[in-house]
Amino acid sequence: MTQLGLYLAKKSVNKAEISRKTGISKSRLSELSMNPSTKLRADELYLIALAIDVDPTELLNHLFTDLKLKE
User: Fold this and answer.
1) What's this model's pTM, rounded to 2 decimal places?
2) DSSP letter string, the chain
3) Which domain holds residue 10?
4) Residue 56 placed within a domain
C-alpha cells in the first residue's frame, strides 16, 4: 500500500465518492493507493484533498515527509 492509500484508509474515505467528485477513475485511485511505483500528479493530489476536505498542503506534507534536500 502507498502513503496515499494508508492516508485514505486512516481517514476512512470512500474512493467511489472521491472518484465522483474529482473525475479521477476508480481504477486510477486504486493504482495510486496500491502501487508504490505509480506517480501522483499535483492536480490529482489537489483534487483528492478538496474531495476529502483537507488542506492540500497537509496532504502533500503527509505523503512526502521522507523527501529531504541534499546537503
Assistant:
1) 0.91
2) --HHHHHHHHHT--HHHHHHHH---HHHHHHHHH-TTSPPPHHHHHHHHHHTT--HHHHHHHHTTT-----
3) 3-63
4) yes
